[in-house]
């Protein structure tokens, strides 16, 4: 992928409510994911590439309920007035939003996904993107998730869940890269 490909950056659910680590599992991997996402956002802005902020409007008791402070996009990636913010109520950024129509209208064929959480909304969006035929990239150090308790009561670490989610997506639904590798590819 190069700048000539005109890739779109999707910043998925990078919202203040997801800072409630205790509520979401007690531990999160990639504590610098938002900073990596901000680094990419800066690059996209400098190169005038398409940017879409995706915002999840959760239902109680979610920390992402519309109108509550947790629903706000984090300051690190705060949208500029002219940048698109698409609001969704489900995991995939394609369901209930005009995302596909906007991408198709702009002739976008390549997507770069960053945000929260790796195994939920990032994964759901990546899977649908691939099914729609987009060449999709997930940036591993600009995504993160939380510890989870499995159906048998086993606690799974955020690091393990993150790695398994990415392994399930890589070379099937997306290409998984780190921020530095993506930036190198774009400059070639």
SSE succession: EHEEHEHEEEHEH
Number of strands: 8
Rg is 16 Å
Give the end-to-end Cα distance, rounded to a whole number of Å. Answer: 8 Å
Strands ordered across the widest β-sheet: 3-2-1-4-5-8
Oligomer: single chain
Average pLDDT, all residues: 97
Share of helix among residues?
Answer: 25-40%
Low-pLDDT stretches: none
> How would you describe the shape?
globular
User: What is the number of helices?
Assistant: 5
Q: Supply the helix-strand structural class.
A: alpha/beta
Main beta sheet strand tally, sense and closure: 6 strands, parallel
Question: What fraction of the residues are assigned to beta strands by DSSP?
Answer: 15-25%
Task: Describe this protein's structure.
The chain is of the alpha/beta class. It has helices at residues 33-46, 99-105, 118-131, 158-169, 179-187, and strands at residues 8-12, 51-56, 84-88, 110-116, 135-144, 148-149, 155-156, 175-177. Strand 6 and strand 7 (155-156) form a beta hairpin. The chain is globular, with a radius of gyration of 16 Å. It starts with 7 loop residues before the first strand and ends with a helix. The mean pLDDT is 97.
What's this model, at a glance?
Helices cover 30% and strands 21% of the residues.
Give the SSE map.
Blueprint (H helix, E strand, L loop, with lengths): L7 E5 L20 H14 L4 E6 L27 E5 L10 H7 L4 E7 L1 H14 L3 E10 L3 E2 L5 E2 L1 H12 L5 E3 L1 H9 L1
Parallel strand pairs: 1-2, 1-4, 2-3, 4-5, 5-8
Antiparallel strand pairs: 6-7
């Amino acid at each position: 992928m190069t700048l000539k490909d005109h890739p779109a950056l999707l910043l998925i659910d990078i919202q203040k409510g997801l800072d409630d680590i205790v509520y979401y599992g007690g531990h999160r991997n990639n504590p610098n994911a938002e900073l990596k996402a901000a680094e990419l956002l800066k690059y996209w802005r400098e190169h005038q590439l398409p940017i879409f902020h995706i915002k999840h409007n959760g239902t109680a008791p979610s920390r992402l309920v519309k109108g509550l402070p947790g629903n706000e996009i984090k300051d690190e990636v705060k949208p500029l007035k002219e940048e698109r913010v698409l609001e969704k109520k489900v995991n995939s950024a394609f369901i209930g939003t005009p995302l596909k129509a906007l991408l198709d209208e702009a002739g976008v064929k390549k997507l770069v996904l960053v945000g929260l959480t790796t195994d939920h909304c990032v994964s759901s969006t990546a899977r649908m993107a691939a099914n729609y035929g987009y060449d999709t990239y997930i940036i591993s150090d600009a995504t993160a998730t939380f510890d989870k308790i499995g159906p048998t009561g086993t606690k799974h670490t955020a690091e393990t869940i993150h790695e398994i989610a990415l392994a399930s997506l890589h070379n099937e639904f997306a290409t998984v890269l780190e921020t530095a590798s993506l930036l190198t590819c774009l400059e070639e």
